[in-house]
């Protein structure tokens, strides 16, 4: 039943949007032009939402994230922080993590807000650090499933 409702809702939204485009059609513009503009607007809105989420996730990540994977890596860093707040990290307790926070740097992950705070883990480069973060998150995910 729920699937049918969602499908009905989507069809209604698409139909409403198509009617809206038809009603707002300017002189000399075709239905295809209006549809393209509407789709571009949806794409631009989605890109703005992605950038906002990226900036939130990148909080306390003091390395340059670029390329197609920057959103993924920022999300993985945010997930890592949530995981260590929930489970702790080796010799560092949950209380210390909540109190001091977590900071990602080029060669280390620290318990604090800069690279001179207490090391949680050290690395040779940022790629090694990001690989560790992703692996840690996957291990926690599989632990929760089991």
Task: Describe the protein's architecture and organization.
Residues 8-14 have low confidence and may be disordered. Strand 2 and strand 3 (118-122) form a beta hairpin. The two termini are 31 Å apart. This protein has 5 helices and 3 strands, in the order ααααβββα. It is elongated and about 65 Å long. It has a 3-stranded antiparallel sheet with strand order 1-2-3. It has 2 domains: 2-54; 62-145, no CATH class. By secondary structure, it is mainly alpha-helical. The chain is 64% helix and 8% strand.
Q: In order across it, which strands form the biggest sheet?
A: 1-2-3
Instruction: Say how many strands there are.
Output: 3
- Tell me what portion of residues adopts beta-strand conformation: 5-15%
The backbone outline, from C-alpha atoms, is elongated
Chain-averaged pLDDT: 83
Instruction: Report low-confidence residues grouped into runs of 5 or more.
Output: 8-14
- Computed structural class: mainly alpha
Number of domains: 2
Largest sheet: 3 strands, antiparallel
Q: In which range does the helix fraction lie?
A: 55-70%
Number of helices, counting only DSSP H or I runs of 4 residues or more: 5
Our Rg estimate from Cα atoms comes to 22 Å
First CA to last CA: what distance? 31 Å
User: What is the succession of H and E elements?
Assistant: HHHHEEEH
């Amino acid at each position: 039943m729920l699937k049918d409702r969602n499908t009905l809702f989507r069809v209604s939204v698409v139909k409403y949007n198509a009617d809206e485009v038809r009603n707002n059609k300017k002189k000399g513009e075709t239905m295809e032009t209006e549809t393209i503009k509407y789709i571009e607007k949806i794409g631009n809105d989605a890109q703005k939402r992605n950038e906002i989420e990226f900036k939130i996730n990148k909080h306390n990540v003091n390395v340059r994230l670029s390329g197609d994977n920057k959103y993924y890596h920022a999300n993985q860093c945010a997930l890592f922080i949530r995981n260590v707040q929930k489970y702790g990290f080796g010799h560092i307790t949950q209380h210390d993590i909540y109190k001091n926070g977590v900071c990602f740097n080029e060669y280390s992950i620290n318990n604090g807000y800069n690279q001179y705070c207490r090391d949680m883990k050290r690395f040779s480069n940022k790629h090694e650090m990001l690989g560790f973060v992703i692996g840690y998150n996957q291990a926690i995910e599989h632990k929760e499933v089991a």
